[in-house]
Design a protein that fits this description.
Function: Catalyzes the pyruvoyl-dependent decarboxylation of aspartate to produce beta-alanine.
Strand order of the largest sheet: 2-6-3-5-4-7-1-8
Subcellular location: Cytoplasm
CATH class: Mainly Beta
Keywords: Autocatalytic cleavage, Cytoplasm, Decarboxylase, Lyase, Pantothenate biosynthesis, Pyruvate, Schiff base, Zymogen
Oligomer: single chain
Order of helices and strands: EEEHEEEEHE
CATH architecture: Beta Barrel
Shape: globular
Distance between the termini: 40 Å
Family: Belongs to the PanD family.
Strand content: over 45%
Cofactor: pyruvate
Number of helices: 2
Length: 116
């Protein structure tokens, strides 16, 4: 049997922009994507701490070390600049693997979105 588990998490980052006229997705600083093991095009869940919104989209890399967290397309309506969000990715693995699996969870500075 397979189960869905937490694979990656970027805990509490600040939204730097919202671009309604973009096709869709969330732009994430590539440094944060690499550190959290989130891949380009991967489905992610977004939890908005400020307003309780929960929604799904896919990740695209932004410039490294830029701190960029931009919601694009329709998702831009679910956030405002400076909202604090959590970005989560899940994976499907065998139940026997889940007992020893460790997700990639990072805790960036929520003022700068940096790992320092």
């Amino acid at each position: 049997m397979q189960i869905q588990v937490l694979k990656s998490k970027i805990h509490r980052v600040r939204v730097t922009g919202a671009d309604l006229n973009y096709i869709g997705s969330i732009t994430i600083d590539e440094t944060l994507m690499e550190a959290s093991n989130i891949f380009e095009g991967e489905k992610v869940s977004i939890v908005n701490i400020n307003n309780g919104e929960r929604f799904e989209t896919y990740a695209i890399p932004g410039p490294k070390n830029s701190g960029e967290i931009t919601l694009n397309g329709p998702a831009a309506r679910k956030v405002q600049k400076d909202d604090i969000i959590i970005i989560i990715a899940y994976g499907i693995i065998e139940m026997s693997e889940a007992k020893n699996f460790k997700p990639s969870v990072i805790f960036p500075n929520e003022e700068t979105n940096s790992l320092q």
